[in-house]
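R.M. (postdoc): so does anyone remember the format we settled on? I'll just put the structure tokens first.
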């Protein structure tokens, strides 16, 4: 999960690929929280999801790809670690896995021979400035910013609620633990996400919270 050892050590990469193959086989499905976020979209409310998850479940739950910003990238795709090599950049992990065949434990980029990595932001890597810039613009322009399941302590993503507040938005926090933003929030919800989010979304779709 840390870029330095990943690039330097084939054994780290073998364990990483094995772990991801195991995780893929587990077959995670969208939960009630993911599914709830599709409702405002279907009701015609302009919704954007800014996520630190890399599992692609927001898209699988039915949100259009363009409405989901993956701040930490995606584990659904692989990329070459070599700067300037675009091959593999948008190659889907599932397609690559079929093509690589059995017994390949540390695959190389098929184009340049460089180290292949998941298209996630590993520890030691910076967030994609284009994605982060889009997230900042969305936070600045929104009427309601809902922070879900995050302690809001790791920057730069933790700055997004402040950007929303500065732009005049209301902030709602759904998290089991206190966050630094709780005093500035319009509402803080401590329930489990799978319960809290469907209820919150029903209120939003009914016209509550925004402009009430
Ligand atoms: Zn390459």
């Amino acid at each position: 999960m840390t870029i330095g050892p990943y690039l330097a050590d084939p054994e780290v990469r073998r364990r990483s690929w094995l772990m991801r193959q195991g995780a893929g086989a587990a077959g995670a499905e969208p939960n009630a929280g993911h599914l709830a976020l599709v409702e405002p979209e279907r009701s015609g409310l302009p919704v954007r999801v800014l996520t630190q998850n890399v599992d692609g479940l927001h898209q699988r739950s039915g949100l259009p790809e363009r409405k989901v910003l993956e701040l930490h990238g995606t584990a659904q795709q692989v990329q070459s670690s070599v700067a300037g090599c675009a091959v593999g950049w948008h190659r889907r992990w599932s397609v690559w896995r079929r093509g690589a065949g059995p017994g390949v434990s540390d695959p190389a980029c098929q184009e340049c021979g460089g180290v292949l990595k998941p298209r996630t932001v590993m520890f030691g890597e910076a967030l994609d400035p284009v994605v982060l810039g889009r997230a900042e613009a969305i936070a600045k322009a929104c009427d309601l910013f809902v922070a879900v399941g995050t302690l809001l302590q790791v920057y730069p993503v933790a700055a997004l609620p402040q950007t929303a507040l500065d732009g005049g938005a209301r902030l709602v926090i759904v998290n089991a633990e206190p966050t630094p933003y709780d005093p500035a929030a319009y509402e803080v919800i401590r329930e489990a996400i799978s319960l809290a989010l469907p209820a919150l979304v029903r209120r939003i779709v009914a016209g509550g919270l925004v402009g009430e």
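R.M.: ...and that's the designed sequence above, right after the tokens. Also worth knowing: Residues 80, 82, 85, 87-88, 109, 111-112, 114 surround zinc ion (CB under 6 Å). The radius of gyration is 19 Å.
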